[in-house]
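As agreed, record minuted below.
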Amino acid sequence: MADQKPSSPGTENHRYWDRLQHQTEMDLVLNDGRCFAGTSHDISLGGVFLQVAQPDLKSHVGRYGHLELHTGEGDLSFPCLVVRATDAGLGVKFIDKNAGFGMYMSHFLMLDLLSGINNLFAGALDIDETLNIAVEHIKDYMQSEGASLFLVEAGGRIRCRSCSGPVDITGVILEPGEGIVGRSIAEGQVLVVGNVDIDPHFASKVDKATGFKTDSILCAPLKIKGEVLGALEVVNKRGCGLFAGHDRMVLSALASATAMAIHNARQANMLLEAEANTQNDLRERVNEATRELVAAKEAAEQANRKKSDFLSSMSHELRTPLNAILGFGQIMDMDAEHPLSDDQRTSLEQIMNGGRHLLGLINEILDLAKIEAGRIDLSIEKCDIGLIALESLSYLETLADQNGIVLHFDHALAASADAVKADPVRFKQVLLNLLSNAVKYNRENGTVTLAWEATDNGSIRIRVTDTGHGIAPDKLASLFEPFNRLDAEKSKIEGTGLGLSITRQLIERMDGRIGVDSTPGEGTTFWIELPRAD
C-alpha cells in the first residue's frame, strides 16, 4: 500500500484532517505532579492507552491522575488510574465512565469524520486522488494496519483501486465471489472475520504475493440504489482488539458516502462522453439523460443536506451536555482525603446530569443503527406487566415532580398477573420512552395515565395517556419517522427525534403493534399491543 501519506486538496480539508489528528493528542497529569504528553491508542469507554516516550514508566502503575485534552471547544479533564505500563506507553482506566471520554472521542470523531469525508467528496476534482485520501484517513480512524477500496469492473472482476498500509496492492484483481471482498460484494453485506486462517473464503493469494500477514478483516459493500459498486476493506485492527459492532456501523456509513461519490463521478463522466459524441439527431436523448442526472443530483444533494442537518443537530446536542461536563469538571477533586464541600457536590451532580444526558443521546443513535442493521438480539420471555410498570413509574417520579405532572396508575392492575411475551429490557425501554414523552410534552399540572386491557386477538393493549396539547391529524403520519420532532426542536425540550422510531421498530420485532390517538387541545394516547403470555 502507499508509502507516502497523501494530502487533502484544498486548505479547508487540510485544516479538517489536522484538527482530527490533534484531537488524539493529550496529556496525562498524575496527582504527584508528573506530566506525560502523548498520543492515544485503543480508545474505549473504560480507558485508553497513551503512547509516550519516557523511561521507567512501570513505576507509575497504580497512581491516580487526570487525562487532559485541549480542544477548540475548551479543555477536558477525566480522572483516571494508571493500570498498565510498557516500553511504548501507559494504559489508564477511567474512574468515572459516565464522564463521557470514550463517547466524546469515538462518537464525536465519527460524526466529524463523516462530515469531513462528505465535504472532501463534494469538492473533489480528481476522484482517484480523493479516494486515496479517504482510504488513508479511514485506515487511521478505524485503527487498522491497512485499508483498501475495490471496484467491480465489466465482466464482474474486482480490482483494487486505492489502498493505504505497509504494502501496495493497487491493481490486484479478484474473481467474482473470491475472498472476503468478493463475498461481501456478492451478498451485499458487511462482513467481519476475526481469524482469516479458519475462514474458507479468505483469498490468501494476496498475502502470498506481498508477504503481508492478514489476521482479521472488516469489509463493507459500496451500495447505491440497489447496485453494489465494490467494497471498502480494513484489515488487522491495531493492538489486541477485534473489530466490533461500532466499527461495522462506522465503516458501513463511510462506504455509503464513498459509493455516492463514485456514483456521482461516473454519472458526470457519462454525461461528458455523451455530449462529446452526440449528434443533432440524438440531442433530445442527451437532454433526457441530462434531466435524469440533474434529478439524481438534486436527490443526492437533498440526502446530503439531511445528513448535514443531522450532523449539525447532533453536534449541538452533544456539545450542550459536554460543555456542562467541562464547566463543572474543572472543580472536581477526586482525592478521597479531601471530601467534597456542599457546593462541590452540587457541581458534581450537574456534571453527572450532563453526562447522563449525553449517554442517552448516543445510546439512541446506537440503538437505531443496530436495529436498522438487524444486529439487535432479543430474548423473548414471559414479562410481568405490573412489575415492569411499577419499576418504570418509579423512574419517572422525579421528572414528573419537576414538571408538575401527576402519574395515575391503578395499582390493582399490578396484582393482576397479566403478562406478555417480550424482551424484558426492551419492553421496559419502550414503556419508559412513552411515559417520559407523556411527561415532557404535557401541560403544566397535567396528568399521565398508564393502563392496559386484554384484546380479542390474544394480545394485551397497554395505553399511555397524557393531557398535553395533542397532535394535529396531518402530522400523525410522520410521527414515527427518525429525527422528526414535529417542531419540538424549536422548544426547550431536549431530544433527538429517535425515541418513537426506535420504539416502533422494537415493538414490531417483538411481534407487536404500536399506534396513537390524539385530539388537539385535549391530549394524546400512545398504545402498544404485545402477545399475551399464558
Notes: Confidence is low (pLDDT under 50) at residues 1-22. The CA atoms of residues 64 and 81 lie 5 Å apart. The first strand starts at residue 25 and ends at 30. DSSP finds twelve helices and 19 strands in the chain.
